[in-house]
Automatic annotation (TrEMBL):
One of its GO terms (molecular function) is DNA binding. One of its GO terms (biological process) is DNA integration. The lineage of its organism: Eukaryota, Metazoa, Chordata, Craniata, Vertebrata. Residues 144-296 form the Tc1-like transposase DDE domain. It comes from Salmo trutta (Brown trout). This is Paired domain-containing protein. SUPFAM superfamilies: Homeodomain-like. Coiled coil: none annotated. Residues 66-135 form the Transposase Tc1-like domain. NCBIfam families: transpos_IS630.
Length: 336
């Protein structure tokens, strides 16, 4: 705890009068441990002045740090090496590493969120969608079945990073095996607030056309609707992929009395909570390090079935927040 000079002076004055550290602490001037430390420093140095911390002096002043931050915010794509060169012109001789540390102190990190490009039409459609459903509660969203396709790679890392010490670069525990042409398995799945629904693994070289999609809806979606909702009304969500928008699909869904949520805006994975479900599933599968296609497929099915209803419910509960954030950001991406 940092204490001001006046407080330290009062503590030492009381100490000189014979007060113990406990007596001084009873006056609630400072914590007892702080009082004993001040008394100890006074006995050793004979002064109430706090010694300056040892160590290498800071290379930049607060004003120079603010200048660095301003330079970075003017062009967020500038590298730390280029920033160090610009900083030298302001009289600060610092390395790119020092630049990164200063920016980190100000909460600026060099990470780009990878999201699909949003066109003006995308932004407009996202706003139309969010305004249409802005008053929906989590209970309303609980009546929606979300769906999507997703790829799984053998030896995939799912964006995971490992923390290691120096010298552990090639230790087996910290090495992620890769192959030149990793096998990719595609799956289709759906879920709602009631839990995960059907998940099916696509056969190799499957053409994702309208015939395939109608088969998926008939064999996978219909059983999920019956199991989770029975005769109760629900809505089905799917994105604007060409096979989803085919006339034969629209007609078939109408014949099955399946209402569609939407129209769904393009390039909007942040609006679909199943994207978060895919991330959870991929982390769980990758953690078990499958070594061949059969094991990968078995783990995908196993871990999908193990996802709890609570996880599904929490993802559905996030929908009002997603809608509100996109509206606040005028159609731009939300954090999900």
């Amino acid at each position: 705890m940092v204490t001001c000079k006046e407080t330290r002076a009062v503590i030492i004055a009381l100490h000189k009068k014979g007060f113990t550290g406990k007596d001084i602490a009873a006056r609630k001037i400072a914590p007892e441990s702080t009082i004993y430390r001040i008394i100890k420093n006074f006995k050793e140095s004979g002064s109430i002045v706090v010694k300056k911390a040892s160590g290498r002096p800071r290379k930049s002043s607060k004003r120079q740090d603010r200048l660095l931050k301003l330079i970075q915010l003017q062009d967020r794509g500038t590298t730390s090496t280029a920033l160090a060169q610009e900083w030298r012109q302001a009289g600060v001789s610092a390395s790119a590493r020092t630049v990164r540390r200063r920016l980190l102190e100000d909460g600026l990190v060099s990470r780009a969120a990878k999201k699909p490009l949003l066109s003006r039409k995308n932004i407009r459609d996202r706003l139309i969608f969010c305004k249409r459903y802005r008053d929906w509660t989590a209970e309303d969203w609980g009546k929606v079945i979300f769906s999507d396709e997703s790829p799984f790679q053998l030896f995939g890392a799912s964006g995971k990073k490992l923390v290691r010490r120096r010298g552990e670069h090639y230790h087996q525990s910290f090495v992620m095996p890769t192959v030149k042409h990793p096998e990719t398995i595609h799956v289709w799945g759906c879920f709602s607030a009631k839990g995960v629904g059907s998940l099916t693994i696509l056969s190799r070289n499957t053409a994702m056309d309208k015939e395939w999609y109608q088969h998926i809806l008939r064999e996978q979606l219909l059983p999920t609707i019956q199991e989770q909702f029975g005769d109760d009304q629900c809505l089905f969500q799917h994105d604007g992929a060409p096979c989803h928008k085919a006339k034969v699909i629209t007609k078939w869904l109408g014949e099955q009395n399946i209402a569609i949520l939407g129209p769904w805006p393009g390039n909007s994975p942040d609006l679909n909570p199943i994207e978060n479900l895919w991330s959870i599933l991929k982390r769980r599968v990758d953690k078990q390090k499958p070594t061949n296609s059969d094991k990968l497929q078995a783990l995908i099915m196993q871990e999908w079935a193990a996802i709890s209803q609570d996880v599904a419910q929490k993802l559905i509960d996030s929908m009002p927040g997603r809608i509100a954030e996109i509206l606040k950001k005028e159609g731009q991406y939300c954090k999900y």
